[in-house]
């Protein structure tokens, strides 16, 4: 079955890099996504990676995909206090385009 | 401005009452989704609709119902049969093109007293 796993918490200092990790099980996923959720709000798509790519960089964000190990990571460079939020990874499912989400990683950035 | 709206932001209901959550989008997206979020858990899919007048159950459909009479609207009814309805409900619609991206509304927090 489908399952996406993330660690629940990460704490970093302002200016450091943050790395949030995710493992997934459905090797047929076309896209893998990273969403950000601020308190009491909906989800905002940060970035995505196509399944035939190994890496994607978008300003401070770097996504790495290891298909062999089914491992996805999101690196945030020069982490700021405004980056404090919950980060979800998600994979697509072939049925109806639905997304399978991880539990979310709460990132806390300390000044 | 294009986007997804959900109303109300906060909703309080007594146990045993049905309640309907609104979701509207003006993005001209065909597919729409309802998710439930509980603390410390990811989003779980309740129902989804790929086209008007058609919808499918997600992973946790029991105690919920939906309709899709118009492309722009996908209301969710939480019925009295839902055993633990207090949660944060998120609606999304999907862009059938660039990366199949799902756009999310701001959510409705339902509290059943």
What brief labels describe this structure?
heterodimer; A: 111 residues; mainly beta; 6-stranded mixed sheet; 5-stranded antiparallel sheet; 11 strands; B: 113 residues; 7-stranded mixed sheet; 50% strand
Order of helices and strands of chain B: EEEEEEEEEEE
Main sheet: strands, sense, barrel of chain B: 7 strands, mixed
What's the helix-strand series of chain A?
A: EEEEEEEEEEE
Q: What gross morphology of chain B would you assign?
A: globular
Task: Walk me through the topology.
The complex is a heterodimer of chains A (111) and B (113).
Chain A: E1 4-6, E2 9-13, E3 18-24, E4 31-37, E5 43-50, E6 55-58, E7 61-66, E8 71-76, E9 85-92, E10 99-101, E11 105-110
Parallel strand pairs in A: 2-11
Antiparallel strand pairs in A: 1-3, 3-8, 4-5, 4-9, 6-7, 7-8, 9-10, 9-11
Chain B: E1 4-7, E2 10-13, E3 19-25, E4 31-37, E5 43-51, E6 54-57, E7 64-66, E8 76-78, E9 87-94, E10 102-104, E11 108-112
Parallel strand pairs in B: 2-11
Antiparallel strand pairs in B: 1-3, 3-8, 4-5, 4-9, 5-6, 7-8, 9-10, 9-11
Question: What report would you give on this structure?
Answer:
The complex is a heterodimer of chains A (111) and B (113). Chain A has 111 residues and is mainly β. In chain A, 0% of the residues lie in helices and 57% in strands. Chain A has strands at residues 4-6, 9-13, 18-24, 31-37, 43-50, 55-58, 61-66, 71-76, 85-92, 99-101, 105-110. In chain A, the strands form two sheets. In chain A, strands 2, 4, 5, 9, 10 and 11 form a six-stranded mixed beta sheet that branches. By secondary structure, chain B is mainly β. In chain B, strands 2, 4, 5, 6, 9, 10 and 11 form a seven-stranded mixed beta sheet that branches. The mean pLDDT of chain B is 92.
């Amino acid at each position: 079955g489908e399952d996406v796993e993330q660690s629940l918490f990460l704490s970093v200092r302002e200016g450091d890099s943050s790395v949030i990790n995710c493992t997934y099980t459905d090797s047929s996923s076309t896209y893998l996504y990273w969403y950000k959720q601020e308190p009491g709000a909906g989800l905002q798509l940060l970035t995505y990676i196509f399944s035939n790519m190994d890496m994607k960089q978008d300003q401070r964000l770097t996504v790495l995909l290891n298909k062999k190990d089914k491992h996805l990571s999101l690196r945030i460079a020069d982490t700021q206090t405004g980056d404090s939020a919950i980060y979800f990874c998600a994979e697509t499912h072939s049925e109806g385009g639905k997304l399978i989400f991880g539990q979310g990683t709460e990132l806390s950035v300390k000044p | 401005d294009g986007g997804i709206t959900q109303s109300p932001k906060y909703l309080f209901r007594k146990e045993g009452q049905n309640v309907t959550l609104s979701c509207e989008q003006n993005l001209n997206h065909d597919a729409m989704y309802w998710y439930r979020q509980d603390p410390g858990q990811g989003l779980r899919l309740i129902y989804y609709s790929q086209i008007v007048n058609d919808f499918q159950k997600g992973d946790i459909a029991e105690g919920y119902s939906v309709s899709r009479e118009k492309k722009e609207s996908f209301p969710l009814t939480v019925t009295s049969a839902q055993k633990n309805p207090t949660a944060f409900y998120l609606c999304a619609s999907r862009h059938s093109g660039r990366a199949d991206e799902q756009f999310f509304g701001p959510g409705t927090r339902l509290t059943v007293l």
